[in-house]
Amino acid sequence: MSTQQAILADALRPAEAMSPSDPYRRAEQTFPRLNADQVARASAFGSVESLPQGTILFERGDRTVDFFLVQEGHIEIFEARADGGVEVFTVHAEFQFTGELDLFNEREILVGGRMGIDGRVARLNRAQFRRLLAAEPDIAEIIMRAFILRRVGLIEHTQGAAILVGSREIGVADSLRLQRFLKRNGYPVRVMDVDAEEEARALLAGEGLSREDVPVAFCGRGSVLRRPSNMEMAQALGILEMLPQDKVFDVAVVGAGPAGLAAAVYAASEGLETVVLGAEAPGGQAGTSSKIENYLGFPTGISGQALAGRAQVQAQKFGARIGVPRTVVRLECDSRPYRLHLDDGTHVDARAVVVATGAHYRRLDGVENFERFDGGNGVHYAATAIEAGLCAGEEAVVVGGGNSAGQAAVFLSRHASHVHILVRGPNLAASMSDYLVGRISASDRITLHTQSEVVRLGGERHMDQVTWRNRVTGKELTRPVTNLFLMLGAVPNTEWLAGCGVRVDEGGFVQVGAQAGGSAADPLWRGREPTLFETSRPGIFAVGDVRAGSVKRVAASVGEGSAVVSAVHQVLAEG
Q1: 87 and 111 in contact (C-beta within 8 Å)?
Q2: What is the pLDDT of residues 302-317, one digit of tens each?
Q3: Which stretches of the chain score pLDDT less than 70?
Q4: Which of 249, 380, 260 has the alpha carbon at shortest distance from 324?
Q5: Domain count, the chain
Q6: DSSP string over 239-274
Q7: What is the per-residue burial (b if ≥16 Cβ within 10 Å, else e) of 214-230?
Q8: Same domain for 145 and 83?
Q9: What pTM did the predictor assign?
Q10: Does residue 491 belong to any structural domain of this protein?
Q11: Do 145 and 259 fall into the same domain?
């Protein structure tokens, strides 16, 4: 084994000590054993095969693999090592089963599986597997829970992971972007620091690369990418699913935030052929929230990423296709089915379209040196664990007075030495939930600066100070801040609708229902009025934050996404 191969093998080896929350400690849920009756019922959906020791059932990089239930013998789950060998890290014994979340989609799987000894298994292909989940709810519950926990285990132990080599000084914005992309898409990643780890430097040297080339991604099977785009990472790791070009979906949902995922869950569960197109990762803007505490049914709160991850799995369980990262650049709506053109040159055809592209935070205008530090080099538009780690022991600034800003400030205050919140208004009461206002007021690690605005950022290669001014007194204050979080206002993501005749308001938000101006007298509408969420084009709907007049709350977006499906059915019934 070469030095580089040894480093790669060691870098991906799971830690021996497991934390109390590690899914691998919960073996009865993560690696459950079905009872004899459940095995018999599940096996009836597929075929039973006797296989000799060493039979490869699936390998990393395969797509659309089968589900295996062990009747006799055992199945070894392994990672391929750089030296050509394998490392077994899980064994499924009698009455246990293979698989994790990638069994619900057509991404490349992360690990391999083989017969450890001669044995007998029940094999279910994807169609048979879905019939099992639909027909046997008790078995489906066990499988769903196990699959979710197994993916968490792969992430925590960096099994089947990509290695990302970065630096604290070079390519920081790109490194953060790639970390966010992989984390939000639930892909295991091991991050190495070329400035602190000799192993990272050796990995680069083995590819003829240096510190100046970072971030560098080692994607397995010999694939090494220098400063890749999100799309390049998705292609190299098999995250990107190929969407059929000759198929007409019943409904295409554009946007994978709470509204879009809710629409996908209800549409797919009601038998509609559904595809979801998301630009980066499931969750949208809500997916970057560290904790949502006022969402119904989660009294202790839930992170936006966790909520989105569960919704994605739920939609896929019912058969929805999730196309991420896929950016829609143009919508053809002069004829039906509608055609959505994607940024990679492909397209998706659908009989109905749900616009759920949400909104993004505004940038700061007129701030000195803003462009130099925007895009992850000190200026951030999300406050996740990745960004929080950058603030450890340092001051941070959050700009904005909405719930997202309040959640970010509370979360960051656990890591930063102090958090400053800047708002242009006199208080937070008008735009932030009372529970967050109270939490901010009670914290001695958060200071609210009202009627204030950022005027200048300072630093050389990286931002190291922020100056803001009180709009009433004119007094300026400069603090040593390396991370600025912007959560201001909302700009709708509707550029791709230009030229399609979908009516928007003066702010660019999509108008629906009576606002949209459709009329039964117009031949386009075939004698009916637009439904509640229908735009000025029949069969094109808008829900969530992108809709004019929406309340910009996760629960409201989920409600709209769920409710719009009944109107979709009505349109599809028209033919």
Answers
A1: no
A2: 999 999 999 999 999 9
A3: 1-20
A4: 260
A5: 4
A6: -SPPPPSS-EEEEEEE--SHHHHHHHHHHHHTT--E
A7: bbbbbbbeeebbeebeb
A8: yes
A9: 0.90
A10: no
A11: no
